[in-house]
Design a protein that fits this description.
The complex is a heterodimer.
Chain A: H1 3-11, H2 22-40, H3 45-60, H4 69-91, H5 109-126, H6 131-142, H7 147-154, H8 158-181
Chain B: H1 3-8, H2 15-30, H3 39-46, H4 58-64, E1 71-73, E2 76-82, H5 84-97, E3 106-113, E4 119-120, H6 124-131, E5 147-154, E6 157-163, H7 165-174, E7 190-195, E8 198-204, E9 209-216, E10 219-221, H8 228-238, H9 243-252, E11 258-264, E12 268-275, E13 278-285, E14 300-306, E15 309-315, H10 319-328
Parallel strand pairs in B: 2-11
Antiparallel strand pairs in B: 1-10, 3-6, 4-5, 5-8, 6-7, 7-10, 8-9, 9-15, 12-13, 13-14, 14-15
Classes of the chains: A mainly alpha, B alpha+beta.
C-alpha cells in the first residue's frame, strides 16, 4: 500500500471518490464473515443477522478504508468479533447454539443430511470449548484466516496461535471419537 | 476429524440472503457519508484535514496535551515530519483497535450533541446560512473550466471523552517506547470537544477536483493541571521523534493554539505559505496516488486560519495553482 494512499486517502476522504470495488470486496468477504459466525455462534437466521450487522457497520464507515481494502478486511473481521461478543453479552447464554443449519435447495437430500449431521455434531463439540478456543477455530476454519492474521486479531504470537490450534483440534478429535464410540 | 474436515464445514451464504444484504449495502454506498461524532473524523472535517497523515494516535495525544488549558482553539498549523515505518506501526495499531483512533487514549465517549448526517445545499449562501458562517469564502473567480459539484454542511456536534492512560501505555508498549512515562493524574479526567458546523464546497472540471472547506475552530475544553509540555512530548515520541528532539520541539510549540500536522517524509512535503497576509501550511503529496486501474494524481492542500475561521483548500491541482485558489477566496 502506498503511503500516499493511506495518508491522502484519509484526508481526501472529503472527496466523493469511489475507487474501491465494493462488489468484489463484498463477494470476497461475505463467506468469511458468514462462516465465522457459523462456527462461532451457529447457523441459521442468527448467523445471517450478525453477518448483516457486521457489514452494515463496516459500510457505514467505509470512507475510512476507501483506498485501503487490505486494512478494511482486517477491520471487518474485528467488527465481526465485536458483534459476536455483543451478541453473547446480550443473550448471556454462552452455552447454547443457534438454530440448525439452513437447508440449501438443489442438493441430494441424503448427502445434505450427512453434511448437516456432521456440522451439527461439530457444533456440539465447539460448544464445549472455552471461548478463546472456539474463537480460534472460528477464525481459522470459519473465516479462513492465516495464523498470522489470527495472531494480529488475538494479540498472540503466530507460533502461539499454531500451538493453540493444534491443541484445540486434538481436543475436538478426541471429543469426536468419544462421541462416535458412545 | 482433521483440518480438512474442519474447513469442509464452511458453506456459501444463501444466495437470497447475499443478494438482499448487498442491496442494503448499496443503499448505504449511495447515501451521503454519515459521520458519527467521533473525534478524529470530526477534527478532519472541521479542521479541514489539518490532521493529515497518520494522525491516528497523535490527535488524541495532542488534544490531551491541552490538559493544562481551559480551552484550545486552532490558530495556526505547523508541520512535523514523520517516518514511514512509524506510519506503518501506527496504522497497524489503529487496525487492531477497531475504534476511533482517538480511542487509543480516550474511553467512555458521551455524545452531547449528535451532528446527524451532512446536508447538501443548492447554493453557498444557503449553506453559509445553515452553518452560521456569514461571509463564507468562495473562489473568485473559479479556475477556468471548474463548476460547483456539491455544497455540503456538516452540522455541529459535541462529545465528552474520558482519558484512559492504560490504553496509551499499551500504544507506547507496542511502539517499544519503554522509556516514555505517561504523566500521572490524568487517568479518568474528561475533555469536551465542540465541533462547529462546517461547509464543504466541491468543484470539478471533469478531470480535476477542488474542495474548499470552512469552519469556525473547534473548541476543546480540558481539565486543568496536566503537564502540557510533557504530554506534547509523549505525543511527539509516538510520532517517532527521538527523546531529545521531542523535548526540544515540545518546548518550542505554542500548544494552546497550534495544530500539528504530521507529514510523512517519504510521501509528502510541506512548506509555509502566506494566504492574503495569513500564515498557512501547504502540504503536497510527492507520490502519485494511483487507485487500481486508474491514473494516479498528486494532491495538495493549503490550510490556514483567519481569526476564528479555519480554512482549507485541497485538490489535485498543482500546488501553486491551489495556492492561487486559496488567495482568491473572498
Amino acid at each position: 500500500m502506498a503511503i500516499g494512499d493511506m495518508v491522502f486517502g484519509r484526508s481526501w476522504a472529503l472527496h466523493p471518490a469511489r475507487e474501491a470495488d465494493w462488489d468484489a470486496l463484498y463477494a470476497d468477504q461475505l463467506p468469511r464473515v458468514y462462516n465465522y459466525f457459523r462456527y462461532r455462534i451457529g447457523s441459521g437466521p442468527v448467523a445471517e443477522d450478525l453477518t448483516s450487522q457486521t457489514f452494515e457497520k463496516a459500510w457505514t464507515a467505509r470512507h475510512r478504508y476507501r483506498r485501503d481494502l487490505a486494512a478494511f478486511s482486517t477491520w471487518l473481521m474485528t467488527i465481526a468479533r465485536n458483534v459476536a461478543t455483543d451478541h453473547y453479552r446480550r443473550r448471556r447464554d454462552h452455552a447454547s447454539l443457534e438454530a440448525a443449519e439452513h437447508v440449501a435447495g438443489g442438493e441430494d437430500p441424503e448427502a445434505l443430511a450427512v453434511r448437516r449431521e456432521a456440522y451439527e455434531r461439530l457444533l456440539r463439540l465447539l460448544i464445549t470449548l472455552p471461548e478463546r478456543d472456539r474463537e480460534l477455530v472460528s477464525l481459522k476454519y470459519g473465516a479462513g484466516l492465516t495464523n498470522r492474521d489470527i495472531a494480529r486479531q488475538l494479540r498472540l504470537t503466530e507460533t502461539n496461535v499454531g500451538t493453540l490450534l493444534h491443541r484445540v483440534v486434538q481436543k475436538l478429535r478426541a471429543g469426536w471419537d468419544s462421541e462416535g464410540a458412545s | 476429524m482433521d483440518d480438512r474436515f474442519l474447513h469442509d464445514q464452511r458453506r456459501e451464504p444463501e444466495p437470497g440472503f447475499a443478494r438482499s444484504l448487498r442491496e442494503r449495502l448499496r443503499g448505504l454506498e449511495e447515501a451521503p457519508e454519515a459521520r458519527g461524532f467521533r473525534l478524529h473524523p470530526a477534527l478532519i472535517t472541521a479542521m479541514a484535514a489539518g490532521l493529515v497523515a497518520v494522525a491516528f494516535t497523535f490527535p488524541a495525544v495532542r488534544v490531551a496535551a491541552q490538559g493544562a488549558l481551559d480551552l484550545f482553539r486552532v490558530r495556526s498549523f505547523a508541520a512535523i515530519e514523520i517516518d514511514e515505518s512509524r506510519i506503518e506501526q501506527l496504522k497497524k495499531l489503529n487496525d487492531e483497535v477497531n475504534r476511533d483512533p482517538a480511542m487509543m487514549l480516550f474511553d467512555q465517549q458521551q455524545v452531547l450533541q449528535e451532528p446527524g448526517p451532512p446536508t447538501e445545499y443548492p447554493s453557498a449562501d444557503l449553506a453559509a446560512s445553515a452553518a452560521g458562517l456569514p461571509g463564507l469564502r468562495r473562489p473568485q473567480p473559479l479556475p477556468a473550466g471548474f463548476n460547483v459539484e456539491q455544497i455540503v454542511v456538516s452540522h455541529p456536534g459535541a462529545a465528552k471523552l474520558t482519558v484512559r492512560t492504560e490504553t496509551l501505555r499499551h500504544v507506547l508498549e507496542m511502539l517499544d517506547l519503554r522509556d516514555v512515562q505517561v504523566p500521572q493524574g490524568f487517568d479518568g479526567q474528561s475533555i469536551t470537544v465542540h465541533m462547529p458546523a462546517s461547509v464543504r464546497q466541491s468543484f470539478t472540471n471533469g478531470s480535476q477536483q477542488l474542495t474548499v472547506l470552512e469552519a469556525n475552530s473547534p473548541e476543546v475544553t480540558l481539565p486543568p493541571g496536566a503537564d502540557l509540555q510533557k504530554l506534547g512530548e509523549v505525543g511527539l515520541r509516538v510520532l517517532g521523534l527521538d527523546r531529545d528532539e521531542a523535548r526540544r520541539v515540545a518546548s518550542s510549540i505554542d500548544w494552546k493554539n497550534t495544530l500539528l500536522v504530521p507529514v510523512p517524509t517519504s510521501a509528502a512535503s510541506f512548506r509555509q505559505v502566506e494566504v492574503n497576509g495569513h500564515k498557512g501550511l501547504l502540504v503536497r503529496s510527492t507520490r502519485e496516488m494511483a487507485p487500481e486501474g486508474k491514473r494516479g494524481k498528486r494532491r495538495a492542500m493549503v490550510m490556514w486560519t483567519e481569526g476564528e475561521r479555519v480554512l482549507v483548500v485541497q485538490g489535485d491541482l498543482a500546488p501553486d495553482e491551489l495556492l492561487e485558489v486559496a488567495q482568491s477566496l473572498r
